């Protein structure tokens, strides 16, 4: 019996180790704006969307909490960063920190609403929170600009040296750096004992409660952390574009990030990154070819992905494995 805890500990340590391909992936990401400077803006968007997807994966993939209102924290962080830069100080890093703190506080407050009820209840509650914030931002036009958005947001240079350029290279590196830091924090969380209790809550909440795991506090903490990361993604978008609008709170933000996790996979932090890359590149390519009907082709891709399966779509050689016949 004494060998069992040792084997479990060895398995957990092996899972938490950095894989050889991970540094190569991040080196490629940071080299991309230099090698393809004409696409720096899309790299910036991918980094922001990937960070947003990672935040939702902490809630959905690792804890099993379904949310359709994750845009509430994305938009809140964005507006806080915009207001801070316009009325107080244009420093991007300080504004980012303030936005993260504000979104984290909002997440802590909203976490009280998801501790009870079923998945359907949580869907409606989280969606309701996002709609409330959207309407508040629309009504408080003296503060947020209302339907016209908050204009005139001018950001200072990053670290006092690097001004945001029109080509988007500084923005891309800024967003990639924030993504890397927060991704490492999220990775440390999911591979910690706390992260493994989250998986227990996801797999069977009643059993987790029976063995002494404080399910309610675990859900509240991870929801709060995820809100802070989502707020950071919203702040990055506003800081790198210089504009905050009601679109930050719109339902399509929550729906898109959910689709990104469908593409990349849940319960795996790199699934959010991979899904963001595929989703944004498809969106960019299809909208360039068919500006009016790109959503149709994107929807068709998602239907095929669900019907065929992610493994068989991205690894076609699986179809020819012995004993594998068709997509069943």
Report on the architecture of this protein.
This protein has 328 residues and is an all-alpha fold. The protein folds into two domains: 19-288, ABC transporter involved in vitamin B12 uptake, BtuC, CATH 1.10.3470; 290-328, no CATH class. It is 71% helix and 0% strand. It has 15 helices and no strands. The protein has helices spanning 3-16, 21-35, 40-60, 71-87, 92-110, 119-139, 141-144, 169-190, 193-203, 205-210, 215-241, 251-264, 269-289, 294-308, 310-314. The protein starts with a helix and ends in a 14-residue tail after the last helix. The relative contact order is 0.17. The model is unreliable at 316-328 (pLDDT under 50).
Brief characterization of the structure:
By secondary structure, the chain is mainly alpha-helical. The protein has helices spanning 3-16, 21-35, 40-60, 71-87, 92-110, 119-139, 141-144, 169-190, 193-203, 205-210, 215-241, 251-264, 269-289, 294-308, 310-314. The chain has 2 domains: 19-288, ABC transporter involved in vitamin B12 uptake, BtuC (Orthogonal Bundle); 290-328, no CATH class.
